[in-house]
Design brief:
The complex is a heterodimer of chains A (184) and B (631). Chain A is mainly α. Chain A has nine helices and no strands. In chain A, helix 5 packs antiparallel against helix 6, helix 7 packs across helix 9 and helix 8 packs across helix 9. Chain A has one domain. Chain A is globular. Chain A starts with 12 loop residues before the first helix and ends with a helix. Chain B contains 16 helices and 23 strands. In chain B, a hairpin with a 2-residue loop joins strand 11 and strand 12. Chain B is globular. Chain B starts with a helix and ends in a 15-residue tail after the last strand. The longest helix of chain B has 22 residues. Chain B is of the alpha+beta class. The chains are: A mainly alpha (184), B alpha+beta (631). The interface between A and B is large, with 77 and 69 residues.
Chain lengths: 184, 631
């Protein structure tokens, strides 16, 4: 029988990694990258609409987290904190480049074809960008990839919980149709 | 579960497209040195002291090297460390390169900022090897230039960690003297709080929890230990500046003399308003000559609102209930609320039009009759019997006003809140609309309604205080909300919410979604691991060990209070092992009951439950609560 672990071990893996980065723990950065990079990249890609900006933001987010980790105080919602950083970086990117959000569908597809995404992956990603509105995209990424709860997303986006739930359901419905249409 | 599959598929797609930039990130974010932070000073500091001393001895023996070249010193030893806290927090590790005459010569061995402000203060200054007083002079000078130390914020906390009283005295004297001189150059009288760092778990835990220096944590613990009836918490205090903490410290009667090691010199810039003065301000606002004897239900407590110390004052007078927030430093009424407790419509009066009610509200707020710039928003908010009550809101003179006024002109409710005008120093409130237009967020030609601006101090991701405007307005059914960093003229967030019928799904759909969401994500995640049994100590007796059957019976009896009568035959999967733990003999017991898995420690000689946890057993799924689907 193992000895009891009276500390709460499961909830705070992201928090632990952020604190670990601040405290110089060897594997903390790798661990945080493993747990959060997909959500960061997906969010950045859905907001910026091009893979190069998303890649920049992915890197910049970790650098921001690294810098900010020394002052990090957990509010129990580390993914919300991370997403806020990503969101601000996305806005900074827009302001810096003064350009509109999306590259064309074809160019995005071309860009995606240079990654490990297959045709179905590319279709789904492009659909996320073209078929879903901005809030739907954010909600899907935050919940399905970032693992955030609908309540947290509602807080983060300043939307009523019901709106988040209905938008989420609607967005998944649209994606479901695309998946079925493509027989994924 | 169709949704789960879709989610998984979407997540996979993005994952496949994701580039691997870890190597590049890792190169730019090297693992930080596990520096002997103040929070880990204990053994770590001593080891690093020994290591440095050893290195120095080696250097001297093999090379005859003087540590700080050209100084002619012949012995060097790490002496101590000192932390300066204002809001910037800076750790300085000191070496003592004694001169030939044996006098101390404290120099900087290493320096680092504990927070973003501290890092900013150090900037590109290379202070390694310079004399302590020179370093302090440079750092305080930088804090003065950057506005962290001002006439109205003149406090510095100096925390010294040393093994020797003599060394502590020398360092405190040197540092305090230098701070006082440097601040006097700027015509500021310094108030320095100095203390000897005690390496206690409480200080280190608090420091780690709120990411503050151990010195600040020790000061907070000192305040908490002596707070008497005051309503402070560690979390609130951790957000305050040293000047605020110094003010609080000045007002305390220090009864906890444990490790008495704290000294204050000078006075913090602004003395806070005491209870008496706060009451005087509140009573004066209601009616001249009002005193404590005239009111009922008086409550006054010092609290914190967005990091600002405020007096919260509540009382009843006449038929009204009053609530105030009064700045403990500024003495200004930050918010004022008045609600009538007894209301009878005066139907003898002539009913007023909505425009007349708006004019009345403006008059109550002190808006001059000829001022046409104030736009009053109103809506019929409720009925009191057959009487319409209007809700009105508007901004005037850096204050937000809300009223509820009935159709006869009786005021049922009023609320005023001062804007935090600190933001205006960076960005004028009146510029905001233009700023949003400039940013392409808003068209100059589009009429908006419900335009409202509020501002507040907030803490950003780096832990710095920023002033943030929150702007809300509506265009048709769409409401836009922005937060703007006033200092950097930067939009921090934008949200758009649309009022549509679809926004509110039927309740049963919402219930299903909520339930599925909770079950999929939360039920074994948020609410796992119940704890019970407290944290008792096992008996130290060497009495006879209880049998396993006795343990089972005793344990189940002790769970009745929390779980009801658990019958032995309803339980399964018992595992019982004898261990030496917590200074005595303990049975570690596991069993399952009703889909729950229990893990308990039980005193092996008395059967007393020492502590226990429960969790859902593997494979267990909660049953969905009944919901009547009839619409």
């Amino acid at each position: 029988m193992s000895s009891k672990n009276y500390a709460k071990p499961r909830r705070n893996r992201l928090d632990s990694a952020i604190y670990g980065i601040a405290d110089g723990e060897e594997d903390a950065l790798a661990s945080l990258y493993e747990m959060s990079s997909s959500a960061i990249y997906a969010y950045a890609l859905t907001v910026t609409g091009n893979i190069y900006d998303a890649q920049d933001i992915l890197q910049e987010t970790f650098i921001k987290i690294y810098d900010a980790s020394v002052n990090y105080v957990s509010q129990g919602k580390p993914m919300s904190w991370i997403m806020r950083i990503v969101r601000n970086l996305c806005y900074d990117k827009f302001r810096a480049s003064s350009r509109t959000v999306n590259v064309s569908d074809e160019i995005l597809d071309l860009q995606l074809s240079t990654t490990g995404a297959d045709a179905t992956d590319r279709l789904l990603i492009r659909s996320c960008l073209s078929e879903l509105d901005g809030e739907e995209r954010s909600i899907v990424v935050m919940h399905a990839i970032g693992g955030m709860k609908h309540r947290q997303i509602a807080e983060e986006l300043g939307l009523p919980l019901n709106t988040v739930l209905s938008k989420y359901r609607r967005a998944l419905g649209k994606l479901q149709k695309i998946i079925e249409g493509d027989k994924v | 579960m169709k949704n789960k599959k879709t989610e998984k598929r979407v997540a996979e797609s993005f994952r496949h497209a994701q580039p691997d930039v870890y190597r590049s990130v890792a190169e730019q974010c090297p693992t930080r040195e596990r520096v002997a932070r103040k929070s880990h000073v204990g053994l770590g500091w001593k080891l690093s002291t020994c290591t440095l001393a050893l290195l120095l001895v080696v250097a001297i023996v093999f090379g005859g090297v003087a540590m700080w070249g050209g100084k002619g010193n012949d012995t060097v030893a790490v002496a101590a460390s000192v932390t300066l806290d204002v809001n910037p927090s800076i750790d300085i590790q000191l070496s003592n390169a004694k001169g030939r005459d044996g006098s101390a010569d404290y120099r900087v061995a290493s320096i680092k900022g504990n927070n973003a402000d501290g890092v900013g203060i150090i900037g590109s200054m290379d202070l390694k090897g310079v004399q302590l007083e020179v370093a302090v002079n440079a750092l305080i000078g930088s804090m003065l230039r950057k506005g962290y130390i001002r006439a109205d914020a003149n406090s510095v906390l100096v925390s010294v960690d040393s093994d020797s009283q003599a060394v502590y005295d020398q360092i405190v004297s040197t540092v305090c003297n230098e701070i006082t001189i440097k601040m006097r150059e700027s015509q500021i009288d310094a108030s320095v709080v100095s203390q000897w760092i005690k390496e206690t778990d409480a200080n280190e835990t608090l420091a780690a929890q709120y990411r503050i220096s151990v010195g600040k944590a020790q000061l907070i613990n000192k305040i908490l230990a002596n707070k008497g009836e005051e309503n402070y918490t560690a979390e609130q205090l951790s957000k305050l500046t040293i000047n605020d903490l110094n003010i609080i410290l000045s007002g305390l009667t220090v009864t906890d003399t444990t490790g008495e090691d704290i000294t204050q010199s000078g006075s913090a810039s602004t003395q806070s308003y005491g209870r008496e003065r706060a009451l005087e301000i509140a009573f004066g606002r209601v009616q001249s000559g009002l005193t404590e004897e005239n009111v009922l239900g008086l409550k006054a407590k010092l609290d914190f609102d967005d990091g600002i110390m405020v007096w919260e004052v509540e009382f009843c007078y006449g038929t009204n209930e009053y609530e105030f927030e009064i700045g403990a430093i500024s003495g200004e009424i930050i918010s004022f609320e008045c609600e009538t407790a007894q209301y009878t419509p005066d139907t003898t009066q002539t009913a007023k039009t909505e425009e007349e009610i708006k004019t009345l509200a403006k008059t109550l707020a002190g808006v001059p009759a000829d001022d046409t710039t104030v736009e009053v928003f109103s809506e019929r908010c409720r009925f009191w019997g057959q009487n319409i009550v209007y809700s009105l809101w508007f901004s005037y003179n850096d204050t937000y006003f809300e009223y509820e006024i009935d159709v006869y002109g009786a005021v049922l409710y009023s609320f005023e809140q001062k804007f935090d005008t600190a933001a205006d120093a960076y960005m004028d409130r009146s510029e905001i609309k233009d700023f949003l237009i400039e940013q392409g967020e808003l068209s100059a030609l589009t009429p908006v309604s419900g335009y409202r601006v509020t501002s507040a101090a907030q803490t950003d991701e780096q832990g710095n205080t920023i002033i943030v405007y929150t702007v809300t307005y509506s265009i048709g059914d769409i409401t836009y909300t922005y937060t703007i960093d006033a200092l950097n003229r930067k939009i921090l967030s934008r949200d758009v919410s649309e009022k549509t019928a679809e926004q509110y799904p039927p309740f049963h759909d919402w219930f299903d979604d909520e339930w599925n969401d909770w079950k999929d994500d939360d039920w074994d995640w948020d609410y796992d691991d119940g704890y019970f049994g407290g944290h008792k100590q096992p008996s130290q007796s060497s009495g006879t060990l209880l049998t396993e059957d006795q343990i089972k019976t005793y344990l189940l009896n002790q769970l009745i209070g929390q779980f009801g009568n658990i019958l032995l035959e309803e339980t399964s999967d018992w595992e019982i092992e004898l261990e030496e733990e917590f200074g005595g003999k303990v049975y570690e017991v596991e069993f399952q009951w009703n889909g729950l898995e229990f893990e308990c420690d039980v005193d092996a000689t008395t059967g007393m439950l020492i502590r226990g946890t429960w969790d859902y057993a593997d494979g267990f799924e909660p049953s969905r609560p009944a919901w009547n689907h009839a619409r």
